[in-house]
Fold each of these.
Amino acid sequence: MSGFVRTADTVSATFVAEEVALLTDLLSQFASVIGERGARGTDAAVDRLLPDAYRDNAEYSDEFRRFTEDDLAAGKLHNAASVAQALAAPPLRRGTPVVLDDAAVQSWLRTLTDLRLTLAARAGIVSDEPPVPKDEREDMLIAIYDWLGYLQQSLIEAIDI
Amino acid sequence: MGVAQLAERWLVEPEVAGSSPVVHPTRNGPTSVGPFLFKLCKAGPVEQTLEETVLDELTVSDQPWITLVWNDPVNLMSYVSWVFRSYFGVDRPEAERLMLQVHNDGKAVVATGGREEMERHVQAMHGFGLWASIQKGDE
């Protein structure tokens, strides 16, 4: 695992098979979380991914949601699908190289954010303090959360010219 | 533990604890949010009388609205700064100032203007995964 790097005009990362499998599974689950979402207030992750626009006016928030939520959700699904597609390239012996163009950079940055927001909701990460896992499950969630954060940080540094 | 074992269905199943359904009070009849959302709408009529529309327009033209970005424990400071630069087109020092204000004060006003424009900004921020909201500027 080396994260994203810039070489000449391209931004790329190389993933080993286990990383591809994990990311692909996360993306599939994320698509389910968004695609099969229930009403507001039934899933903390969805509430954070598709938040209220008006904190002080439920009526305005509901109206805004009615007109914008489907587009917002579709955008998130589109970005996640783009990332999954990039990872679905035939694996080479030494790993799967992923080269990002400008549009792919946007999809990856946004999707890494959405995955981390979802993981944070599942692991109960609610403050800026380093998360303390309650059990083995949370320990794993936080490890994946940190890894995705590392990936995202490396991607921001790679595009930050 | 192998990666395959990590890939459980933990994203899909909502956490039971701490996620009680939010029940909004019942609202009667068609709502009158105004022409702003109407322009964002691709299809479907908004039931609204002319009188209501005129009132809303008058209210809004007199009142500046603001886009707020709220601190959250998830988003990387470098990412938030990048979003401000790439979306709002501000330079690096201004993006860093806003990002640090979000981080240290819990929130920052990132845009001021008409309601329709602020709603576009909020939607864009949500697209980036930032925690944003709109409200009247004098609140």
Amino acid sequence: MALIKVKGLKKDYPLGKTVVHALRGIDLTVEKGELISVVGPSGCGKTTLLNIIGCIDHPTEGVVEIDKVDITSLDDKKLTDLRLYKIGFIFQTFNLIPVLDVKENIEFPLLLMKGKKTFSQKEINQRVERLIEEVGLKDYVKHKPAELSGGQRQRVAIARALVTNPDIVLADEPTANLDSETGESILAIMRELNEIEKTTFIFSTHNPDVLKYAKRVIRLKDGLIVGEE
Amino acid sequence: MNLIFIKIAFRNLSRHKVKSLIVGGLIFLVSFIMTIGNGVIKGMNTGLRKNVVEGFTGHIVLISTNQFDKEVFGSLSGRPIALMNDYSKTESVLKSLNYIKDFLPVGRNVAMVLTETRIPIFWLLISVDMDEYQKFFNSNLIVIEGNSLLSNDTGLLIGSEQRKYAANFFNIWFYPVGSEINYSNMPPKVFTNRENLEYKTDAVLMGLSEDFSSDVRIPVKGIVKFKNLNNFFGGFVFVDRKSFVEIFNYIVEKIDESKISEEQKKILKEENLDSLLEEELFATSLDVRKEGYKTEEIKKAIKKEKEINYNPEAYNAVLIKLKNGINEDVALKKLNEELKKSGCDAKAISWKDATPQLAQMIGMIQGTFNMIIFLLFLVSFIVIMNTISMSVIERITEIGMMRAVGAQKRFIANLIRLESLILGVVFGGGGVISGAITCWFIRMLKLTSKNEMMNLVFGGEVFSPLVGFGDIFSNILVLIFLVLLAIIYPAGLAKKVTPLEAIARE
């Protein structure tokens, strides 16, 4: 069953008097439980594609369906809810809340939830503790982001992305700011979680060494898909 | 949810200490000044109200229905006011009302003091039973020279400020008859000029009235001053009842002109009648034409005029004190209804209306304070808005990231609001409480001033800024309102931050 369906996706950015065509017509289908890597040189449109799928950016043209819902027709409130309940994000620069410690950062999205999907504090604690253990940060629960290494921060970001049990986790160059050993350990965690939780992962990278962790590789060039493995 | 919300707000404030201290310090300063300013204004109002109501006007003043200008007390001279007709009817109505504690009828009008320079001095005359007056106003009047007026005395009690005015502008120094000149009571400027002063123990008064009035020479019995607000009300001149009705010719029956011959009428119209009788009302006799009049005829005419029955109930105002706990506005309304229903020639006005100049000055002082506070508010509004906007701009990545992981715009705006409100409550509350403590401390010091303007600001001679618990609460509310107003723009700015901006800033 297709979780993500992208059809004829185009994205243009005005740059002064010229227009940059970041995406020139992407067609893509992602099934539930896939672990996909989007690769390509800088400026090929990897981040733009992930941003649009993650409801962070709007396409200029085309259709993007997540769980059969066309996200291009949703308002800001619904897009925000979609990000909260269905999508998890892992950023290149970790983007943690500096004033919160590891546990608080991980539980933050859960505390934003309202209505049927709210959790009791006990459930939140259980969920967070399990994830902390899975990403190997048991001894750093009370540490603030500034007191952690890059790899540790990215682990926190992974745990935060997974805490809501999302359908999709989008990771934009998750290893770019990490050394190769740490980067590989992060990807190993992602792969493990993909297998255990059956969460769909899409991560972008320009590092060919990490491609082995992906089950499917999509190659982008100049805003177009040029190959798939 | 709420806990993390508060945690983020508090920790952000602590993280951006300098900004928090700038905004907080400003809020503290505004709240401190606002509390002290409000305390001074409230103290002034309370003090003035207490001093004016309990020392000069009572809660309510009655005047004639024919009187449109409400100024009963105020300036050094004042303006003439109409006589209240049939006072006894008004008196019986007042006696029947259970919310009235006490009332005092007063003759009040304006007379000219005739001087040799032919430039008259205008005096605001108050005619009242002095014992009743002192009882009504808790002995607010102090005799500083001479004696007070007893029931059957004829004489004047001149207010110390009025005497000072006469000395400064007319070189006349009044002092009580039968007393020595007390140089120690002379203001320094007057004392320096003592050689050039004319010393007088009486005054020739001519009533300012639309009807006929008389010139009457009245001895000065005493010089008086008020315990409070003497600078403002010390221009009053008290006169005995008999002289008052004589000056203003307040008579019960009109002269039966048929009993006066044409020649006598002509004599009575003569301007320098006093000189014709050689009674030397003025210190220097004036040249008058004596030929053509028979002295006997003159004396007969005057005698007939003196046989007129003067009105013992000639009052221009009634001062009323209400019982404790009675609302002034409600009582004023009810009283006017009663007076109208009973057909009295009286209408009730508030003590503030009766002292318009005082109210005007209070308004000016309050206006100045309010303007200062408004300017402070404006400056604070701009600084708070700018500082928090800057803080939002600096935190765009963080805000954008929160939006990316699912925080709604409202959450972000509320977070900014909460941070600002914490500053408002902590620093504003601190400022208000510090201001209140300062006011209480100043009150304990019992600072006094004799300066006229300061007396108004103080609401009396003692500086007593007043801050109650209700004021503390309302001041904090005002500050919260200011903060909420100042963060509309930054909160809006924060709401506009998109997750994309967080990523773009990477």
